[in-house]
Structure to design on (554 residues):
Protein backbone atom coordinates (compact mmCIF):
# COMPACT_ATOMS: atom_id res chain seq x y z
CA UNK A 1 0.00 0.00 0.00
CA UNK A 2 2.90 2.37 0.71
CA UNK A 3 4.23 1.80 -2.80
CA UNK A 4 0.80 2.59 -4.23
CA UNK A 5 0.59 5.81 -2.24
CA UNK A 6 4.09 6.90 -3.28
CA UNK A 7 3.47 6.16 -6.97
CA UNK A 8 0.07 7.86 -6.92
CA UNK A 9 1.51 10.95 -5.28
CA UNK A 10 4.21 11.09 -7.97
CA UNK A 11 1.76 10.69 -10.85
CA UNK A 12 -0.70 13.20 -9.41
CA UNK A 13 2.08 15.76 -8.99
CA UNK A 14 2.58 15.56 -12.76
CA UNK A 15 -1.06 16.49 -13.34
CA UNK A 16 -0.73 19.96 -11.88
CA UNK A 17 1.26 22.87 -13.21
CA UNK A 18 4.65 23.49 -11.62
CA UNK A 19 4.76 26.05 -8.85
CA UNK A 20 5.28 29.64 -9.93
CA UNK A 21 8.97 30.50 -9.69
CA UNK A 22 8.52 34.09 -8.50
CA UNK A 23 5.91 36.50 -7.18
CA UNK A 24 5.32 38.13 -10.57
CA UNK A 25 4.39 34.81 -12.18
CA UNK A 26 2.26 33.90 -9.18
CA UNK A 27 0.25 37.13 -9.51
CA UNK A 28 -0.28 36.54 -13.22
CA UNK A 29 -1.45 32.95 -12.65
CA UNK A 30 -3.89 34.19 -10.00
CA UNK A 31 -5.34 36.76 -12.41
CA UNK A 32 -5.65 34.15 -15.17
CA UNK A 33 -7.33 31.72 -12.76
CA UNK A 34 -9.93 34.37 -11.90
CA UNK A 35 -10.62 34.86 -15.61
CA UNK A 36 -11.06 31.09 -16.03
CA UNK A 37 -13.42 30.75 -13.08
CA UNK A 38 -15.51 33.82 -13.97
CA UNK A 39 -15.43 33.28 -17.73
CA UNK A 40 -16.08 29.53 -17.98
CA UNK A 41 -16.65 27.53 -14.79
CA UNK A 42 -19.24 29.74 -13.07
CA UNK A 43 -21.40 30.41 -16.19
CA UNK A 44 -21.46 26.72 -17.20
CA UNK A 45 -22.23 25.59 -13.64
CA UNK A 46 -25.01 28.17 -13.22
CA UNK A 47 -26.68 27.29 -16.53
CA UNK A 48 -26.48 23.56 -15.83
CA UNK A 49 -27.78 23.88 -12.28
CA UNK A 50 -30.61 26.20 -13.36
CA UNK A 51 -31.70 23.81 -16.12
CA UNK A 52 -31.81 20.81 -13.75
CA UNK A 53 -33.61 22.82 -11.05
CA UNK A 54 -36.35 24.14 -13.36
CA UNK A 55 -37.03 20.80 -15.07
CA UNK A 56 -36.98 18.94 -11.74
CA UNK A 57 -39.54 21.33 -10.24
CA UNK A 58 -41.76 20.88 -13.30
CA UNK A 59 -41.57 17.08 -13.04
CA UNK A 60 -42.49 17.05 -9.34
CA UNK A 61 -46.17 17.27 -10.26
CA UNK A 62 -46.01 13.89 -12.03
CA UNK A 63 -43.68 12.30 -9.43
CA UNK A 64 -40.84 11.95 -11.97
CA UNK A 65 -38.48 14.48 -10.43
CA UNK A 66 -35.45 12.16 -10.74
CA UNK A 67 -35.66 11.75 -14.53
CA UNK A 68 -33.65 14.86 -15.45
CA UNK A 69 -30.81 14.27 -12.98
CA UNK A 70 -30.71 10.60 -13.96
CA UNK A 71 -30.49 11.50 -17.64
CA UNK A 72 -27.72 14.03 -16.97
CA UNK A 73 -25.66 11.51 -14.98
CA UNK A 74 -26.06 8.87 -17.68
CA UNK A 75 -24.77 11.38 -20.25
CA UNK A 76 -21.77 12.11 -18.01
CA UNK A 77 -21.01 8.39 -17.70
CA UNK A 78 -21.31 7.81 -21.45
CA UNK A 79 -18.97 10.69 -22.29
CA UNK A 80 -16.53 9.45 -19.63
CA UNK A 81 -16.31 6.09 -21.39
CA UNK A 82 -16.05 7.62 -24.88
CA UNK A 83 -13.24 10.04 -24.03
CA UNK A 84 -11.69 8.05 -21.18
CA UNK A 85 -10.46 5.06 -23.17
CA UNK A 86 -7.75 7.01 -24.99
CA UNK A 87 -6.67 8.59 -21.69
CA UNK A 88 -6.39 5.22 -19.93
CA UNK A 89 -4.61 3.59 -22.89
CA UNK A 90 -2.06 6.38 -23.00
CA UNK A 91 -1.55 6.31 -19.24
CA UNK A 92 -1.24 2.52 -18.88
CA UNK A 93 0.61 1.62 -22.07
CA UNK A 94 2.10 4.62 -23.88
CA UNK A 95 3.46 6.68 -21.00
CA UNK A 96 7.22 7.25 -21.11
CA UNK A 97 7.72 6.02 -17.56
CA UNK A 98 6.48 2.45 -18.16
CA UNK A 99 9.90 1.08 -19.12
CA UNK A 100 11.36 2.46 -15.88
CA UNK A 101 8.58 1.14 -13.64
CA UNK A 102 8.51 -2.48 -14.79
CA UNK A 103 11.98 -3.45 -13.45
CA UNK A 104 11.10 -2.12 -9.98
CA UNK A 105 9.96 -4.54 -7.25
CA UNK A 106 6.33 -3.49 -7.67
CA UNK A 107 3.18 -5.55 -7.99
CA UNK A 108 1.24 -5.08 -11.21
CA UNK A 109 -1.85 -3.91 -9.33
CA UNK A 110 0.19 -1.16 -7.65
CA UNK A 111 1.33 0.26 -10.99
CA UNK A 112 -2.14 0.03 -12.57
CA UNK A 113 -3.94 1.37 -9.49
CA UNK A 114 -1.65 4.38 -9.13
CA UNK A 115 -1.81 5.23 -12.84
CA UNK A 116 -5.56 4.74 -12.86
CA UNK A 117 -5.96 7.06 -9.87
CA UNK A 118 -3.97 9.87 -11.48
CA UNK A 119 -5.78 9.45 -14.81
CA UNK A 120 -9.15 9.40 -13.02
CA UNK A 121 -8.43 12.64 -11.20
CA UNK A 122 -7.01 14.40 -14.25
CA UNK A 123 -9.79 13.31 -16.60
CA UNK A 124 -12.73 14.03 -14.29
CA UNK A 125 -12.02 17.45 -12.77
CA UNK A 126 -14.51 19.16 -15.09
CA UNK A 127 -16.99 16.28 -14.75
CA UNK A 128 -16.91 16.82 -10.98
CA UNK A 129 -17.88 20.47 -11.45
CA UNK A 130 -20.59 19.53 -13.93
CA UNK A 131 -21.96 16.80 -11.63
CA UNK A 132 -21.91 19.15 -8.64
CA UNK A 133 -23.96 21.70 -10.60
CA UNK A 134 -26.51 18.99 -11.49
CA UNK A 135 -26.77 17.84 -7.89
CA UNK A 136 -27.21 21.39 -6.57
CA UNK A 137 -29.94 22.03 -9.16
CA UNK A 138 -31.68 18.78 -8.19
CA UNK A 139 -31.31 19.50 -4.48
CA UNK A 140 -32.81 22.97 -4.77
CA UNK A 141 -35.58 21.68 -7.00
CA UNK A 142 -36.63 18.99 -4.51
CA UNK A 143 -35.77 20.83 -1.26
CA UNK A 144 -33.45 18.04 -0.06
CA UNK A 145 -32.74 17.58 3.62
CA UNK A 146 -29.36 17.70 5.34
CA UNK A 147 -28.80 13.92 5.18
CA UNK A 148 -29.64 13.91 1.45
CA UNK A 149 -27.14 16.73 0.85
CA UNK A 150 -24.38 14.89 2.75
CA UNK A 151 -24.93 11.69 0.78
CA UNK A 152 -25.04 13.63 -2.50
CA UNK A 153 -21.83 15.58 -1.88
CA UNK A 154 -19.87 12.55 -0.66
CA UNK A 155 -20.96 10.49 -3.66
CA UNK A 156 -20.15 13.04 -6.37
CA UNK A 157 -16.45 12.09 -6.88
CA UNK A 158 -17.43 8.44 -7.42
CA UNK A 159 -20.07 8.87 -10.13
CA UNK A 160 -17.54 8.46 -12.98
CA UNK A 161 -15.47 5.77 -11.26
CA UNK A 162 -17.39 2.82 -12.76
CA UNK A 163 -17.15 4.19 -16.35
CA UNK A 164 -13.41 4.71 -15.92
CA UNK A 165 -12.93 1.13 -14.66
CA UNK A 166 -14.74 0.00 -17.81
CA UNK A 167 -12.15 1.94 -19.82
CA UNK A 168 -9.29 0.29 -17.92
CA UNK A 169 -10.72 -3.23 -18.21
CA UNK A 170 -11.42 -2.85 -21.94
CA UNK A 171 -7.93 -1.42 -22.52
CA UNK A 172 -6.15 -4.22 -20.63
CA UNK A 173 -8.10 -7.00 -22.37
CA UNK A 174 -7.64 -5.48 -25.84
CA UNK A 175 -3.91 -4.97 -25.34
CA UNK A 176 -3.45 -8.52 -24.04
CA UNK A 177 -5.52 -10.52 -26.52
CA UNK A 178 -5.43 -8.45 -29.71
CA UNK A 179 -2.99 -6.39 -31.73
CA UNK A 180 -5.50 -3.63 -32.37
CA UNK A 181 -3.48 -0.93 -30.63
CA UNK A 182 0.14 -1.46 -31.67
CA UNK A 183 1.08 2.14 -30.87
CA UNK A 184 -0.43 5.38 -29.62
CA UNK A 185 -0.67 6.66 -33.21
CA UNK A 186 -3.38 4.11 -33.91
CA UNK A 187 -5.09 4.96 -30.62
CA UNK A 188 -5.37 8.59 -31.68
CA UNK A 189 -6.70 7.66 -35.12
CA UNK A 190 -9.43 5.58 -33.53
CA UNK A 191 -10.08 8.44 -31.10
CA UNK A 192 -10.57 10.82 -34.04
CA UNK A 193 -13.06 8.39 -35.53
CA UNK A 194 -14.98 8.14 -32.25
CA UNK A 195 -15.04 11.93 -31.89
CA UNK A 196 -16.54 12.31 -35.36
CA UNK A 197 -19.16 9.66 -34.58
CA UNK A 198 -20.10 11.48 -31.37
CA UNK A 199 -20.30 14.81 -33.23
CA UNK A 200 -22.56 13.27 -35.87
CA UNK A 201 -24.83 11.85 -33.16
CA UNK A 202 -24.99 15.24 -31.46
CA UNK A 203 -25.75 16.85 -34.81
CA UNK A 204 -28.61 14.40 -35.27
CA UNK A 205 -30.00 15.38 -31.88
CA UNK A 206 -30.40 18.99 -33.00
CA UNK A 207 -33.66 18.01 -34.66
CA UNK A 208 -35.06 16.85 -31.32
CA UNK A 209 -34.22 20.12 -29.53
CA UNK A 210 -35.13 22.47 -32.39
CA UNK A 211 -37.13 25.46 -31.10
CA UNK A 212 -36.54 24.25 -27.56
CA UNK A 213 -39.44 24.90 -25.24
CA UNK A 214 -39.38 23.97 -21.55
CA UNK A 215 -43.05 22.94 -21.42
CA UNK A 216 -42.63 20.66 -24.44
CA UNK A 217 -39.45 19.19 -22.96
CA UNK A 218 -41.12 18.50 -19.61
CA UNK A 219 -44.11 16.94 -21.37
CA UNK A 220 -41.87 14.68 -23.46
CA UNK A 221 -39.63 13.62 -20.62
CA UNK A 222 -42.60 12.96 -18.33
CA UNK A 223 -43.83 10.40 -20.90
CA UNK A 224 -40.58 8.47 -20.64
CA UNK A 225 -41.06 5.20 -18.83
CA UNK A 226 -38.27 3.88 -16.63
CA UNK A 227 -38.06 0.84 -18.91
CA UNK A 228 -36.41 3.10 -21.50
CA UNK A 229 -33.44 3.35 -19.14
CA UNK A 230 -32.99 -0.42 -18.75
CA UNK A 231 -29.90 -0.67 -20.94
CA UNK A 232 -28.29 2.29 -19.21
CA UNK A 233 -29.26 0.90 -15.81
CA UNK A 234 -27.51 -2.36 -16.67
CA UNK A 235 -24.39 -0.61 -17.95
CA UNK A 236 -24.26 1.99 -15.17
CA UNK A 237 -26.03 0.53 -12.10
CA UNK A 238 -24.28 3.13 -9.93
CA UNK A 239 -26.51 5.93 -11.27
CA UNK A 240 -29.99 4.71 -10.19
CA UNK A 241 -28.61 3.53 -6.85
CA UNK A 242 -26.98 6.92 -6.24
CA UNK A 243 -30.13 8.79 -7.28
CA UNK A 244 -32.23 6.66 -4.93
CA UNK A 245 -29.78 7.35 -2.11
CA UNK A 246 -29.87 11.13 -2.48
CA UNK A 247 -33.59 11.36 -3.28
CA UNK A 248 -34.75 9.24 -0.35
CA UNK A 249 -31.82 9.80 2.01
CA UNK A 250 -31.21 6.04 2.02
CA UNK A 251 -28.05 4.97 3.85
CA UNK A 252 -28.54 1.40 2.55
CA UNK A 253 -28.60 2.59 -1.07
CA UNK A 254 -25.51 4.69 -0.48
CA UNK A 255 -23.64 1.68 0.95
CA UNK A 256 -24.70 -0.32 -2.12
CA UNK A 257 -23.41 2.57 -4.28
CA UNK A 258 -20.03 2.37 -2.55
CA UNK A 259 -19.96 -1.43 -2.95
CA UNK A 260 -20.62 -1.20 -6.70
CA UNK A 261 -17.64 1.10 -7.12
CA UNK A 262 -15.46 -1.01 -4.83
CA UNK A 263 -16.31 -4.22 -6.72
CA UNK A 264 -15.55 -2.55 -10.08
CA UNK A 265 -12.11 -1.51 -8.80
CA UNK A 266 -11.47 -5.03 -7.48
CA UNK A 267 -12.36 -6.63 -10.83
CA UNK A 268 -10.18 -4.13 -12.68
CA UNK A 269 -7.15 -4.83 -10.47
CA UNK A 270 -7.67 -8.60 -10.72
CA UNK A 271 -7.72 -8.40 -14.52
CA UNK A 272 -4.64 -6.15 -14.38
CA UNK A 273 -2.76 -8.74 -12.28
CA UNK A 274 -3.58 -11.43 -14.82
CA UNK A 275 -3.07 -9.64 -18.15
CA UNK A 276 -1.45 -6.19 -17.88
CA UNK A 277 2.23 -7.18 -17.74
CA UNK A 278 2.10 -9.38 -20.86
CA UNK A 279 0.35 -6.64 -22.85
CA UNK A 280 3.03 -4.09 -21.94
CA UNK A 281 5.90 -6.43 -22.87
CA UNK A 282 4.43 -7.19 -26.31
CA UNK A 283 3.89 -3.49 -26.95
CA UNK A 284 7.44 -2.58 -25.94
CA UNK A 285 8.89 -5.11 -28.40
CA UNK A 286 6.80 -3.74 -31.28
CA UNK A 287 7.60 -0.10 -30.49
CA UNK A 288 11.37 -0.65 -30.32
CA UNK A 289 11.49 -1.78 -33.94
CA UNK A 290 9.09 0.96 -35.08
CA UNK A 291 11.03 3.76 -33.38
CA UNK A 292 14.34 2.65 -34.91
CA UNK A 293 12.85 2.77 -38.42
CA UNK A 294 11.37 6.23 -37.78
CA UNK A 295 14.71 7.67 -36.60
CA UNK A 296 16.52 6.23 -39.63
CA UNK A 297 13.94 7.78 -41.97
CA UNK A 298 14.21 11.21 -40.29
CA UNK A 299 18.00 11.29 -40.63
CA UNK A 300 17.82 10.33 -44.29
CA UNK A 301 15.32 13.08 -45.17
CA UNK A 302 17.01 15.95 -43.29
CA UNK A 303 18.01 18.98 -45.41
CA UNK A 304 19.54 22.37 -44.68
CA UNK A 305 17.07 25.31 -44.69
CA UNK A 306 16.95 28.96 -43.52
CA UNK A 307 16.77 29.30 -39.73
CA UNK A 308 13.24 30.70 -39.41
CA UNK A 309 11.84 28.28 -41.99
CA UNK A 310 13.59 25.32 -40.33
CA UNK A 311 12.21 26.18 -36.91
CA UNK A 312 8.75 26.82 -38.36
CA UNK A 313 8.75 23.47 -40.20
CA UNK A 314 9.99 21.76 -37.04
CA UNK A 315 6.88 23.01 -35.20
CA UNK A 316 4.59 22.01 -38.06
CA UNK A 317 6.07 18.51 -38.26
CA UNK A 318 5.69 17.98 -34.51
CA UNK A 319 2.00 18.88 -34.77
CA UNK A 320 1.39 16.87 -37.92
CA UNK A 321 3.38 13.76 -37.02
CA UNK A 322 2.17 13.48 -33.42
CA UNK A 323 -1.36 12.03 -33.63
CA UNK A 324 -2.41 13.57 -30.31
CA UNK A 325 -1.39 17.06 -31.43
CA UNK A 326 -2.74 16.42 -34.93
CA UNK A 327 -6.17 15.56 -33.53
CA UNK A 328 -6.50 18.35 -30.99
CA UNK A 329 -4.48 21.12 -32.63
CA UNK A 330 -4.94 20.70 -36.39
CA UNK A 331 -8.23 18.84 -36.91
CA UNK A 332 -9.92 21.07 -34.31
CA UNK A 333 -9.54 24.06 -36.66
CA UNK A 334 -11.95 22.55 -39.16
CA UNK A 335 -14.77 21.39 -36.85
CA UNK A 336 -16.42 24.73 -36.07
CA UNK A 337 -18.86 24.63 -39.05
CA UNK A 338 -20.47 21.55 -37.49
CA UNK A 339 -21.29 23.45 -34.29
CA UNK A 340 -22.39 26.52 -36.26
CA UNK A 341 -24.72 24.37 -38.35
CA UNK A 342 -26.14 22.78 -35.19
CA UNK A 343 -26.81 26.21 -33.65
CA UNK A 344 -28.55 27.36 -36.83
CA UNK A 345 -30.73 24.23 -36.87
CA UNK A 346 -31.67 24.68 -33.22
CA UNK A 347 -32.53 28.37 -33.62
CA UNK A 348 -34.54 27.84 -36.82
CA UNK A 349 -34.53 31.58 -37.54
CA UNK A 350 -35.80 31.26 -41.10
CA UNK A 351 -32.77 33.05 -42.54
CA UNK A 352 -31.75 31.48 -45.86
CA UNK A 353 -28.87 31.99 -48.29
CA UNK A 354 -31.26 33.56 -50.78
CA UNK A 355 -32.57 36.01 -48.19
CA UNK A 356 -29.03 36.99 -47.14
CA UNK A 357 -27.95 37.45 -50.75
CA UNK A 358 -30.92 39.69 -51.54
CA UNK A 359 -30.72 41.80 -48.38
CA UNK A 360 -26.98 42.04 -47.75
CA UNK A 361 -26.38 45.35 -49.55
CA UNK A 362 -29.43 47.07 -48.03
CA UNK A 363 -29.36 45.79 -44.43
CA UNK A 364 -26.57 47.23 -42.31
CA UNK A 365 -27.32 44.86 -39.41
CA UNK A 366 -26.40 41.92 -41.64
CA UNK A 367 -23.00 43.49 -42.29
CA UNK A 368 -22.61 44.23 -38.57
CA UNK A 369 -23.46 40.63 -37.74
CA UNK A 370 -20.91 39.27 -40.23
CA UNK A 371 -18.23 41.62 -38.87
CA UNK A 372 -18.81 40.45 -35.30
CA UNK A 373 -19.16 36.84 -36.48
CA UNK A 374 -15.79 36.76 -38.26
CA UNK A 375 -14.08 38.34 -35.23
CA UNK A 376 -15.77 35.89 -32.86
CA UNK A 377 -15.23 32.71 -34.86
CA UNK A 378 -11.62 33.60 -35.71
CA UNK A 379 -10.84 34.26 -32.05
CA UNK A 380 -12.62 31.08 -30.96
CA UNK A 381 -10.82 28.82 -33.49
CA UNK A 382 -7.43 30.36 -32.66
CA UNK A 383 -8.03 29.60 -28.99
CA UNK A 384 -9.68 26.21 -29.55
CA UNK A 385 -6.74 24.74 -31.47
CA UNK A 386 -4.47 25.57 -28.47
CA UNK A 387 -1.40 25.60 -30.75
CA UNK A 388 -0.10 28.84 -29.24
CA UNK A 389 -1.28 28.22 -25.68
CA UNK A 390 0.79 25.02 -25.46
CA UNK A 391 3.61 26.06 -27.82
CA UNK A 392 6.23 26.15 -25.07
CA UNK A 393 4.68 23.36 -23.00
CA UNK A 394 5.02 21.02 -25.99
CA UNK A 395 8.80 21.20 -25.57
CA UNK A 396 8.53 19.27 -22.30
CA UNK A 397 11.84 17.76 -21.24
CA UNK A 398 13.39 19.21 -24.41
CA UNK A 399 12.80 22.77 -23.18
CA UNK A 400 16.55 23.25 -22.83
CA UNK A 401 16.69 22.98 -26.64
CA UNK A 402 15.04 26.42 -26.81
CA UNK A 403 17.67 27.91 -24.52
CA UNK A 404 20.83 26.49 -26.00
CA UNK A 405 20.09 26.25 -29.71
CA UNK A 406 21.90 29.11 -31.55
CA UNK A 407 18.62 30.73 -32.59
CA UNK A 408 17.34 34.04 -31.23
CA UNK A 409 14.37 33.76 -28.85
CA UNK A 410 12.36 36.15 -31.05
CA UNK A 411 12.77 33.89 -34.07
CA UNK A 412 11.66 30.86 -32.09
CA UNK A 413 8.63 32.60 -30.58
CA UNK A 414 7.48 34.19 -33.83
CA UNK A 415 7.79 30.82 -35.57
CA UNK A 416 5.66 29.18 -32.86
CA UNK A 417 3.06 31.96 -33.11
CA UNK A 418 3.00 31.77 -36.91
CA UNK A 419 2.10 28.08 -36.80
CA UNK A 420 -0.98 28.81 -34.71
CA UNK A 421 -1.90 31.79 -36.89
CA UNK A 422 -1.67 29.85 -40.17
CA UNK A 423 -3.71 26.84 -39.04
CA UNK A 424 -6.41 29.02 -37.47
CA UNK A 425 -6.50 31.22 -40.58
CA UNK A 426 -6.92 28.18 -42.84
CA UNK A 427 -9.55 26.69 -40.53
CA UNK A 428 -11.67 29.84 -40.71
CA UNK A 429 -11.11 31.17 -44.22
CA UNK A 430 -11.41 27.84 -46.03
CA UNK A 431 -15.10 27.95 -45.11
CA UNK A 432 -15.76 31.67 -44.72
CA UNK A 433 -14.42 32.97 -48.06
CA UNK A 434 -16.40 30.48 -50.21
CA UNK A 435 -19.49 31.38 -48.17
CA UNK A 436 -18.91 35.05 -49.01
CA UNK A 437 -18.76 34.26 -52.73
CA UNK A 438 -21.94 32.20 -52.45
CA UNK A 439 -23.64 35.22 -50.86
CA UNK A 440 -22.17 37.44 -53.62
CA UNK A 441 -20.49 39.73 -51.11
CA UNK A 442 -18.29 42.41 -52.77
CA UNK A 443 -14.55 41.72 -52.90
CA UNK A 444 -13.76 44.86 -50.89
CA UNK A 445 -16.00 43.62 -48.08
CA UNK A 446 -14.39 40.16 -48.19
CA UNK A 447 -10.96 41.79 -47.86
CA UNK A 448 -12.10 43.76 -44.80
CA UNK A 449 -13.61 40.62 -43.23
CA UNK A 450 -10.36 38.76 -43.90
CA UNK A 451 -8.33 41.56 -42.28
CA UNK A 452 -10.58 41.50 -39.20
CA UNK A 453 -10.34 37.72 -38.93
CA UNK A 454 -6.57 37.73 -39.37
CA UNK A 455 -6.05 40.46 -36.77
CA UNK A 456 -8.23 38.55 -34.30
CA UNK A 457 -6.26 35.34 -34.89
CA UNK A 458 -2.95 37.17 -34.40
CA UNK A 459 -4.20 38.68 -31.13
CA UNK A 460 -5.39 35.36 -29.68
CA UNK A 461 -2.28 33.49 -30.89
CA UNK A 462 0.17 35.87 -29.21
CA UNK A 463 -2.08 36.00 -26.14
CA UNK A 464 -1.90 32.20 -25.88
CA UNK A 465 1.88 32.25 -26.38
CA UNK A 466 2.27 34.86 -23.65
CA UNK A 467 0.09 32.89 -21.23
CA UNK A 468 2.03 29.68 -21.88
CA UNK A 469 5.34 31.48 -21.30
CA UNK A 470 4.32 32.49 -17.77
CA UNK A 471 4.17 28.94 -16.46
CA UNK A 472 4.57 26.25 -19.15
CA UNK A 473 3.74 22.65 -18.32
CA UNK A 474 7.08 20.99 -18.97
CA UNK A 475 6.61 17.83 -16.89
CA UNK A 476 4.55 15.25 -18.80
CA UNK A 477 4.99 11.62 -19.80
CA UNK A 478 2.87 11.51 -22.95
CA UNK A 479 1.46 14.07 -25.35
CA UNK A 480 -2.15 13.88 -24.15
CA UNK A 481 -1.05 15.19 -20.75
CA UNK A 482 0.25 18.46 -22.18
CA UNK A 483 -3.22 19.09 -23.61
CA UNK A 484 -5.59 17.81 -20.93
CA UNK A 485 -3.56 18.87 -17.90
CA UNK A 486 -2.37 22.24 -19.16
CA UNK A 487 -4.22 25.09 -17.43
CA UNK A 488 -2.78 27.63 -19.88
CA UNK A 489 -5.17 26.45 -22.59
CA UNK A 490 -8.04 26.88 -20.15
CA UNK A 491 -6.88 30.38 -19.26
CA UNK A 492 -6.57 31.32 -22.93
CA UNK A 493 -10.06 30.05 -23.72
CA UNK A 494 -11.55 31.93 -20.75
CA UNK A 495 -10.03 35.26 -21.85
CA UNK A 496 -11.11 34.55 -25.43
CA UNK A 497 -14.71 34.00 -24.33
CA UNK A 498 -14.65 37.26 -22.36
CA UNK A 499 -13.11 39.02 -25.38
CA UNK A 500 -15.80 37.65 -27.73
CA UNK A 501 -18.57 38.59 -25.30
CA UNK A 502 -17.26 42.13 -24.92
CA UNK A 503 -16.20 42.92 -28.50
CA UNK A 504 -18.68 40.89 -30.55
CA UNK A 505 -21.88 40.64 -28.55
CA UNK A 506 -21.35 43.96 -26.81
CA UNK A 507 -20.38 45.70 -30.05
CA UNK A 508 -23.32 44.26 -31.97
CA UNK A 509 -25.98 45.34 -29.48
CA UNK A 510 -24.42 48.77 -29.03
CA UNK A 511 -24.20 49.53 -32.76
CA UNK A 512 -27.16 47.68 -34.30
CA UNK A 513 -29.60 50.59 -33.83
CA UNK A 514 -27.20 53.36 -34.94
CA UNK A 515 -27.62 52.68 -38.69
CA UNK A 516 -23.90 53.10 -39.41
CA UNK A 517 -22.38 52.53 -42.83
CA UNK A 518 -20.22 49.48 -43.53
CA UNK A 519 -17.13 51.69 -43.66
CA UNK A 520 -17.88 53.18 -40.24
CA UNK A 521 -18.54 49.74 -38.75
CA UNK A 522 -15.30 48.41 -40.24
CA UNK A 523 -13.22 51.33 -38.96
CA UNK A 524 -14.62 50.93 -35.44
CA UNK A 525 -13.92 47.21 -35.19
CA UNK A 526 -10.55 47.33 -36.98
CA UNK A 527 -9.49 50.06 -34.55
CA UNK A 528 -10.62 48.00 -31.54
CA UNK A 529 -8.85 44.84 -32.70
CA UNK A 530 -5.72 46.81 -33.61
CA UNK A 531 -5.66 48.29 -30.10
CA UNK A 532 -5.95 44.78 -28.65
CA UNK A 533 -3.02 43.67 -30.81
CA UNK A 534 -1.00 46.68 -29.74
CA UNK A 535 -1.68 45.93 -26.08
CA UNK A 536 -0.63 42.28 -26.36
CA UNK A 537 2.44 43.32 -28.37
CA UNK A 538 3.56 45.76 -25.68
CA UNK A 539 2.88 43.22 -22.92
CA UNK A 540 4.60 40.31 -24.63
CA UNK A 541 7.46 42.16 -26.36
CA UNK A 542 9.84 41.72 -23.44
CA UNK A 543 7.86 39.56 -21.03
CA UNK A 544 7.73 36.40 -23.16
CA UNK A 545 11.49 36.42 -23.72
CA UNK A 546 12.11 37.18 -20.05
CA UNK A 547 9.77 34.36 -19.02
CA UNK A 548 11.59 31.89 -21.25
CA UNK A 549 15.05 33.04 -20.21
CA UNK A 550 14.23 32.77 -16.48
CA UNK A 551 12.23 29.54 -16.74
CA UNK A 552 13.94 26.71 -14.91
CA UNK A 553 14.60 23.55 -16.87
CA UNK A 554 12.65 20.50 -15.76
Amino acid sequence: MNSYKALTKTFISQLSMSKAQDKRRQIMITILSIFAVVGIIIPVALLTGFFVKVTTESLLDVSLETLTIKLMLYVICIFTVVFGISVILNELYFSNDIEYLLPWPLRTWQIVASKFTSAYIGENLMQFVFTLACIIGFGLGTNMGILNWIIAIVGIPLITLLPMTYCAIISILIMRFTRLFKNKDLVQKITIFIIFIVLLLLLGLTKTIKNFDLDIFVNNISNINNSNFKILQILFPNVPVYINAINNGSILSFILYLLINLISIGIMLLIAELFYYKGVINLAINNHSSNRKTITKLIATSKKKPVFLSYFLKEVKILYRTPTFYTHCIVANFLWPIFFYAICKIQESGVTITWLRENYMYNQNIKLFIVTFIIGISSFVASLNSISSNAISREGKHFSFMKYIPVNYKIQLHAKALVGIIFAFLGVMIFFIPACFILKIPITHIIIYTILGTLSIIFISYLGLYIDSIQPKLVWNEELSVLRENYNMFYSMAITIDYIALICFGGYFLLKDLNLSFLQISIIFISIVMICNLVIYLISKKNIIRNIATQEEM
Residues 176 and 279 are 4 Å apart (CA to CA). The first helix runs from residue 2 to 15.
